[in-house]
Design the sequence.
C-alpha cells in the first residue's frame, strides 16, 4: 500500500514496528502532492525542511525517543496560522514576512513530533471567496474541479479529500472548517470555544474564531484535536470512540433546514436517511424546535464584520490597493455597523447562547446538515458581488459549542455533510456519535475520481 493512504494510527503503528519510516511516509505524501495538486491548488507553499524534519523523527525513534501520537506524521497548516520561517500570507497579496515563531497549535504539533509539511490555501483573510484575482488560484473541489471547496479552509479540505494528506489544521469563524469538509467529503471538527489557542493565528473575529482539524476520518480528527488542546481539564476527544450509541437521545431540528427554500431536496432526503441510520444504531431521535436560525446568522454576521474591520483598519490605511475587491466589500459592511448595533448583537449572542444550551441539554447531541446544498460551481461567483452560500454553521461559532461535520451522502456526484453538535466540552460525545455513523455507512469510504 502507498504510505500516503495509511491512516494516522496505521502509519504511527508502522513507524513504531519498523516497517515504515517518516522519511518514506513524508516522501510519499510529497509525491502525491506533486501528482495531484496541480489540479487542486490546495497548497500555497511547501516547507523545504519537511524531509529534514522527517529524518529527525526517524533518528529520535531509533534512539527510543517517542514524542507522542503524531511522531513522524505529516501535517498541513492553513495559511492563517504561523509556522516559523514561513510567511503567513492569509491568501492575500499584502506583503508578509516569515513568522518568527510557531503558533501555539503548531508548537503543540511539533512537541508530539509531527512533520509540518506546508501551508494550505485560504480565502483572503478567511473572509470571502473564491477570488480569481489573488496571487494563489483558489482551491478546487476534488469531486469536481468546476466546483468550489467552500471557505475559508478551502485548501485544507481539498488536500484531505483529494488524498494529499490525512489531516490539517484549519480555522472556523462562521463554518470555515465544517463547510469545506461538508462540500468536499471529509471530516471537520470545530472545538468548544477556547479549547484550542488562537495565539499566532491571524484573527478574523476574535469572539467567534476557533482552530480545529480537518481529517480523513473522525478518529483522525479527534487525534489531532487532542494534540492541540491547551485546556488540561478538557476531556480527550478520542475517549469514547468505538463505543456504541445505543440509547443516546439525539435532537433533530428538522424545520431549521427543511423549511428553508434554499435547501436542496436531495439534502433533506440525505438528512432524513442519516437520522434513520442513527436510529437503527440504537439512538433515539426526537424532532425539536430551535430559535429562528436567522437570528443567529444576523448576530454572527454583525460581529464578524465589525470585528474584522477593527482588525484591518490600520492595514487598510496603508495597503488598501493590495486588498481583493470581495474582501473590501465585506469590510465595508463592518463600517456600517454602529456601536448600538454591535451592543445589541452581543446582547443577542448571550441570549441565543443560553437558548442553544437549553435546547441541547436534554440530548447527547443535535443532528443537522452542515450546508443546505452541495458545493456551488465556480460559475456562480463570476459576478461583482460576493455569493453567500447557505450553511447551518455560524450559530455554533456564536454559542461556542463543539460541532463535527462528516460525510453523509451525495447529490449530483458532490458530497453532503452531516453536522453533529454537542454541549460545551462534549467533543468526546460528538466524536463517538460521528464515528458510529461513519462505521455504519459508506459515504466516508468513497473517494473522488482523481
Sequence:
Amino acid at each position: 500500500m502507498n504510505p500516503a493512504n495509511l491512516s494516522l494510527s496505521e502509519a504511527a503503528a508502522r513507524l513504531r514496528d519498523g516497517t515504515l519510516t517518516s522519511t518514506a511516509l513524508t516522501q510519499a505524501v510529497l509525491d502525491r502532492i506533486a501528482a495531484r495538486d496541480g489540479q487542486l491548488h490546495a497548497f500555497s507553499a511547501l516547507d523545504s525542511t519537511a524531509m529534514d524534519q522527517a529524518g529527525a523523527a526517524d533518528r529520535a525513534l531509533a534512539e527510543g525517543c517517542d514524542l507522542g501520537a503524531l511522531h513522524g506524521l505529516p501535517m498541513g497548516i492553513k495559511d492563517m496560522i504561523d509556522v516559523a520561517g514561513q510567511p503567513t500570507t492569509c491568501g492575500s497579496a499584502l506583503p508578509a514576512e516569515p513568522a518568527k515563531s510557531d503558533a501555539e497549535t503548531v508548537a503543540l504539533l511539533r512537541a508530539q513530533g509531527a512533520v509540518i509539511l506546508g501551508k494550505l490555501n485560504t480565502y483572503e483573510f478567511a473572509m470571502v471567496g473564491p477570488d480569481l484575482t489573488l496571487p494563489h488560484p483558489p482551491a478546487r473541489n476534488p469531486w469536481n474541479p468546476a466546483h468550489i471547496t467552500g471557505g475559508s479552509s478551502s485548501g485544507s479540505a481539498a488536500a484531505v479529500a483529494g488524498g494529499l494528506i490525512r489531516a490539517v489544521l484549519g480555522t472556523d469563524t462562521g463554518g470555515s472548517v465544517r463547510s469545506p469538509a461538508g462540500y468536499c467529503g471529509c471530516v471537520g471538527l470545530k472545538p468548544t470555544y477556547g479549547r484550542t489557542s488562537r495565539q499566532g493565528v491571524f484573527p478574523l473575529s476574535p469572539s467567534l474564531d476557533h482552530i480545529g482539524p480537518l481529517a480523513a476520518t473522525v478518529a483522525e480528527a479527534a487525534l489531532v484535536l487532542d494534540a492541540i488542546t491547551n485546556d488540561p481539564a478538557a476531556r480527550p476527544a478520542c475517549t469514547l470512540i468505538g463505543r456504541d450509541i445505543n440509547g443516546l437521545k439525539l435532537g433533530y431540528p428538522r424545520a431549521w433546514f427543511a423549511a428553508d427554500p434554499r435547501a436542496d431536496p436531495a439534502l433533506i432526503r440525505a438528512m432524513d436517511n442519516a437520522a434513520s441510520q442513527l436510529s437503527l444504531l440504537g439512538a433515539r431521535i426526537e424532532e425539536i424546535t430551535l430559535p429562528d436560525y436567522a437570528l443567529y446568522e444576523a448576530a454572527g454576521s454583525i460581529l464578524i464584520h465589525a470585528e474584522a474591520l477593527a482588525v484591518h483598519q490600520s492595514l487598510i490605511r496603508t495597503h488598501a490597493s493590495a486588498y481583493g475587491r470581495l474582501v473590501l466589500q465585506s469590510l465595508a459592511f463592518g463600517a456600517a455597523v454602529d456601536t448600538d448595533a454591535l451592543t445589541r448583537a452581543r446582547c443577542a449572542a448571550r441570549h441565543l447562547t443560553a437558548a442553544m444550551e437549553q435546547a441541547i441539554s436534554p440530548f447527547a447531541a443535535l443532528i443537522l446538515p452542515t450546508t443546505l446544498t452541495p458545493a456551488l460551481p465556480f460559475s456562480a461567483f463570476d459576478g461583482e458581488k460576493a455569493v453567500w452560500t447557505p450553511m447551518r454553521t455560524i450559530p455554533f461559532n456564536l454559542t461556542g459549542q463543539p460541532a463535527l461535520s462528516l460525510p453523509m451522502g451525495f447529490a449530483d456526484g458532490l458530497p453532503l455533510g452531516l453536522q453533529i453538535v454537542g454541549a460545551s466540552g462534549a467533543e468526546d460525545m460528538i466524536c463517538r456519535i460521528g464515528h458510529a455513523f461513519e462505521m455504519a455507512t459508506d459515504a466516508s469510504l468513497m473517494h473522488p475520481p482523481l
